[in-house]
Amino acid sequence: MVLFNVGFYLVVPFLAVHLADELHLAAWAIGLVLGLRTFSQQGLFFLGGSLADRFGARPIVLLGVALRVVAFVALGFAEHLWSMIVGVVLVGLAAALFAPAVESTNAVYGHRLEADGVLARTELFGLEQMCSRLGSVVGPALGAVLLVVPFRWTAVAAAGLFALLWLAFARWLPDDASTSAAEPGAVAPTLRQVWRTVLVNRSFLFFVVLCATQLLAYNQLYLVLPEQLDRSTGSQAALGWFFAGAAVLVIVGQGPAVACARRLGHRNAIVGGLALIALSFLVPPLLLADPGRALAGLVGWVALLHVGQMLMVPPMRDVIGRLAGERNLGAHFGMLSTVGGLATLVGSVLVGWIYDLVDAGRTTAAAPWLALAAVVAASAGAMWLWSGRDRLSPAALARSAPASRR
Question: Where, by residue number, does the polypeptide cross the bilayer (predicted)?
Fold first, then answer.
């Protein structure tokens, strides 16, 4: 997880810089490229997770990592909008193959550890978040240093790192690292059976629709943050340090956030996290008018956004496992990312369009922030109304899990 994030954050946070400064694309085109990257990744997680449920984790992980190597090379040598689109779609497709397999395997292990009284699954998810962020401390810092070299060579370096990761997975990933079932020895389902268990689970589908806005909000770090840094300070040089600082915040704060979420309960933690994320988008508009305080507004936004994520994501992932009845977890976690990817694609294009309106003088500089705050706040309110008093408690979730998959 550390090395995956080093390679990812070496390239993706600086993609907007490359698109704007070297390829000279318009804001809407940058939003399209970044949205397609997220949609091809998150949007295809359902397919990748289903394949992991059907065929097991090992072959799908190896295929995904190999494709990521090809994708970063293609991205580095792309010189036009269409070739950039091809590159980012390949980058996303690679992650759609390997990420759900890893995520659902961790969910299976977490279920077993909780049943054995070792630790709660939300704690395992929190530890996973912390380990992932270790890599995202190093990646942005290296990416900031490498801004002085052409983007092409940064992408090639990331491809080389993923080539080494492929060798490591081929050597150490066990053959039985399967996510096809929550119980050892269970027969792997067909793809049709996998898809059916997801698509007929109405409570699960409604839950992931409400949770999709947190992915939309988080991915604005790749569009709004570079754009606003350039508008506020005239430079995107601080971009890498924003990502590094956010990663340190997660490493330090994820443990306490998980403990707080356990005391609050799943419902309060998820709704509270969404509310904090919505509130974070109200911080920059209060300070953007003053150039001396604009940077502080962005720092406050990034910090509060991550606090909301730390509070809601571990219990959200636990709820998904329970709503799935602990079966076909790759497809269920994949569907969460697919819905979130679609929301991010549409949202990123619309946010880029709003920024074009700002440049044309047809709306205020606060408009993108207020629009995003309203979307996430609506999701938080709907989650509170839908979840009821105890609908998201572990006991209630266990009762509502589909009987055929318990």
Answer: 6-34, 55-75, 81-102, 155-173, 194-218, 238-257, 269-288, 294-313, 333-355, 367-386
244-269: per-residue pLDDT in tens?
Answer: 788 889 889 998 999 999 999 999 99
* SS3 sequence of the chain: CHHHHHHHHHHHHHHHHHHHHHCCCCHHHHHHHHHHHHHHHHCCHHHHHHHHHHHCHHHHHHHHHHHHHHHHHHHHHCCCHHHHHHHHHHHHHHHHHHHHHHHHHHHHHHHHHHHCCCCCHHHHHHHHHHHHHHHHHHHHHHHHHHHHCCHHHHHHHHHHHHHHHHHHHHHHCCCCCCCCCCCCCCCCCCHHHHHHHHHCCHHHHHHHHHHHHHHHHHHHHCCHHHHHHHHHHCCCCCHHHHHHHHHHHHHHHHHHHHHHHHHHCHHHHHHHHHHHHHHHCCHHHHHCCCHHHHHHHHHHHHHHHHHHHHHHHHHHHHHHHHHCCCCCHHHHHHHHHHHHHHHHHHHHHHHHHHHHHHHCCCCCCCHHHHHHHHHHHHHHHHHHHHHCCCCCCHHHHHHHCCHHHC
Q: So where are the chain's domains?
A: 2-172+195-397
Q: For residue 289, what pLDDT is reported?
A: 66
Architecture of domain 2-172+195-397: Up-down Bundle (1.20)
**174-202 residue pLDDT tens:** 665 555 444 555 566 788 888 999 999 99
